[in-house]
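Re: Re: ligand-bound prediction request (bumping)

Still looking for help on this. To restate: I need the protein modeled with xanthosine-5'-monophosphate bound, output as structure tokens. Inputs repeated here so nobody has to scroll up.
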Amino acid sequence: DWTMASYKDEAIRKIRETVGDRKVICGLSGGVDSSVAAVLIHEAIGDQLTCVFVDHGLLRLNEGEDVVKMFRDNYNIPLIHANEADLFLGSLEGVSDPEVKRKTIGRLFIDVFQKYASQIEGADFLAQGTLYPDVIESVSFSGGPSVTIKSHHNVGGLPEKMGLKLVEPLRELFKDEVRELGRELGLPESFIGRHPFPGPGLAIRCPGEITREKLEILRKADAVFIDQIRKHGLYDEIWQAFVAILPVRTVGVMGDGRTYDFACALRAVTSVDGMTADYYPFTHDFLGETATRIINEVKGINRCTYDITSKPPGTIEWE
Ligand code: XMP
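Reply:
Sorry for the wait, this slipped through. Here it is.
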């Protein structure tokens, strides 16, 4: 009978057979899919695998360091940390149109990935954490919005351009099966249960122009919100939760003084697949406590709102 353990063994056998003694490059995002793919392939072929982690400077608090620690130090997987925050943030300076943001990030992502990947000598394969629903989506909605959702992590067109063959060991799996496989591979539960995070990162949670100052504030506020959610034991009930920093300053009072700082919006939704979503019904106590904490702990924010829009008509992200 079918178990995830036997699926794992079979997948490892197939990877070895396909790759032989050649080298594989894997783009790591820190998300569940690419992480499971990387650990699986590493189990199959060891250091014939090199991961490339493109850090665009739009990650959450400590996220870059955590990914590097986990894969390089914990799993001993050869990992190139492509720290290109200056390039990305520089190119995004003055950009406030959401589509231009996405396209700029997507284009740079591919350039950067290619630059680092081409430094790995003798690589013949590119590994991707493509899932079964991705395969279906890109076939049936070709060109439609569902394709652009993941456009930036599937480094489209790159394999041909670089003369690489694809390795996609998760192609037959659904998301919950990938999580199961992750458990089978010994990935920590805290990692497997992580909320999805979009490829363009904090860029699409910072409507208007992105500045380092705003990103810094956003990271801190987001960390407080997630901490609150974990403390109240709500993390696993929620599909996604995050803070968006609004492109507006508002007046407040703090102690004896007047403040003039950014407003932020909290967003938390339940969903099955991200296609539709409902806002999460936090208690007023939770919301009040969280707003107080964010405003007290995060310099630069003096007003906090809760986004109660469902999808549709809203989207989960703000851009
Ligand atoms: P929306 O905002 O469209 O998001 O309701 C639906 C789901 O997709 C994620 N998302 C993205 N993921 N690249 C990604 O990898 C993207 O450009 C992107 N845009 C949205 C979003 O976080 C949510 O889970």
